[in-house]
Design goal:
single chain, 423 residues, alpha/beta, 17 helices, 13 strands, binds ligand SAJ
């Protein structure tokens, strides 16, 4: 299993290809975007992920990692392409299907195909097995097929790919065993063998668990705002209970995983997923709540300017997919406000992304949308210097409120409203 072809060189495919190459496999990474293939072959990267650039440089330099536009024969094919969601909240499996079809001419008896892309339960069994059978490859006889979900956290991908336990779900025992042997090349955590459909469900349940818990936190935060008490104090104290873990409230749930995956279950089983759907809708409603709070704060201000800090969906990443920050910003622009934005991690966005100085200049309200480390380090005295009014709305409870208050800011915190009920 020394030759591996990884299809899709995104946030998961590229780190996986790189780590496999560093573990001694000869890896060809495939991507349909010529600029990505060129970038990687030059030992550079097109995404932001701590430590990845050095690892890609080493892997390309060693000759173990190359990139190409179309697949070539290999022992193992790993499909790590996106599974976006359509406007109707359906899983768009077209990239997975295209990737599977693209390997057909390179596929040989004895090969292992691994799907890593998050997919509705039943994808290996009901979509890929028939697709390969039509091309003359019977799964379990001619080729092996496994579903092996990644569970790495963007921002910590390289560590978590190695350290986390890994689930490998085979269409049969041989497929699972082959997949286990491949991941054993670099995984230090436990490798848990199971069936392919079970593994598909495991992946969706992990992210759904988080979504439902974040929805509970967001609902609690809104209750606390109504009660005039501080959600963060409630969560901090409740979490001292040994079996309670209230998550963080915030402006909503973004990223390509948690905001998307639960829909795969709702789509497949609409009448069984009331809780999951409600949680998703609760989280999706948070940007509107943030917008309403901002409009309330600026109610009496003439021609207000809002300075929004953060476009990415979470701290210290450059990813803006499904970002609640963007929804807030676009909503404020639609409401006719003068909005300026700054995110040091993001290079391309569907809104302005000016320098920090430009963003704050003349602003009445600064809104923290993404809790990047750069923003936590901001000096409130410096930040306030060029602002017209000194109002702060912290949607992540991430800033040092005492310091901002000392610098003359009037502070509103999501989940705590304006009244902070301290002992
Ligand atoms: N968020 C909250 N409150 C919280 C935690 C997160 O509002 O208490 C928000 C974040 O700000 C962000 C979103 O939720 O907008 C998701 O962030 P995240 O850090 O929870 O997760 P992702 O989407 O970056 O990565 C998740 C991870 N899944 C779990 O933790 C169960 C990761 O392990 C998966 O590999 C990844 O999804 C994936 O690829 O599926």
């Amino acid at each position: 299993m020394n030759n591996v072809c990884v299809l899709g060189l995104g946030y998961i495919g590229l780190p996986t290809a790189t780590i496999l190459a560093a573990s001694g496999a000869r890896v060809v990474g495939i991507d349909v975007r010529p600029e990505v293939v060129d970038t990687i072959n030059q030992g550079a990267i097109h995404i932001e992920e701590p430590g990845l650039l050095e690892k890609v440089q080493q892997a390309v330099h060693s000759g173990n990692l190359t990139a190409a536009l179309s697949p070539c024969p290999a022992d193992v094919f790993i499909i790590a392409v996106p599974t976006p969601i359509t406007h109707e909240h359906r899983a768009d499996m077209s990239y997975v299907i295209a990737a599977a079809k693209s390997i057909l001419s390179s596929l040989r008896p004895g090969n292992l195909v691994i799907l890593e892309s998050t997919s509705p339960p039943g994808t290996c069994r009901d979509l890929l097995t028939p697709l390969f059978a039509q091309a003359g490859f019977v799964v379990g006889k001619d080729i092996s097929l496994a579903y092996c979900p990644e569970r790495v956290l963007p921002g910590k991908i390289l560590t978590e790919l190695v350290e986390n336990d890994r689930v490998v779900g085979g269409m049969d025992a041989k497929s699972a065993g082959m997949a286990r042997d491949l991941y054993a090349l670099f995984v230090k955590g436990n490798i848990l063998q199971t069936g392919a459909t079970t593994a598909e469900m495991i992946k969706l349940m992990e992210n759904t668990f988080r979504d439902v818990n974040i929805a509970l936190a967001n609902e609690a935060a809104r209750l606390c705002e109504n009660l005039g008490i501080d959600f963060w104090e409630v969560a901090r104290c409740a979490n001292r209970h040994p079996r309670v873990n209230i998550h963080n409230a915030g402006p909503g749930v973004g990223g390509h995983c948690i905001a998307v995956d639960p829909w795969f279950l709702v789509e497949a089983y609409p009448s069984e997923t009331g809780l999951i759907r409600t949680a998703r809708e609760r989280n999706d409603s948070m940007p509107k709540h943030v917008i309403a709070t901002i409009m309330g704060l600026l109610d009496k201000v003439d021609t207000p300017k809002v300075a929004c800090l953060g476009l990415a969906y979470k701290a210290d990443v450059d990813d803006i997919r499904e970002s609640p920050s963007l929804e807030v910003i676009l909503g404020l622009e639609k409401a006719g406000l003068n909005v300026a934005c700054h995110d040091p991690h993001v290079s391309q966005a569907p809104c302005s992304n000016s320098s920090l100085e430009e963003c704050l200049k003349g602003a009445d309200l600064v809104v923290l949308l993404t809790d990047h480390a750069e923003f936590k380090r901001l000096d409130p005295n410096k930040a306030g210097r060029s602002m017209r009014r000194h109002m702060l709305y912290d949607t992540r409870n991430a800033l040092d409120h005492a310091a901002w208050r000392a610098a003359g800011f009037d502070i509103t915190v999501l989940g705590a409203g304006r009244q902070v009920d301290t002992a």
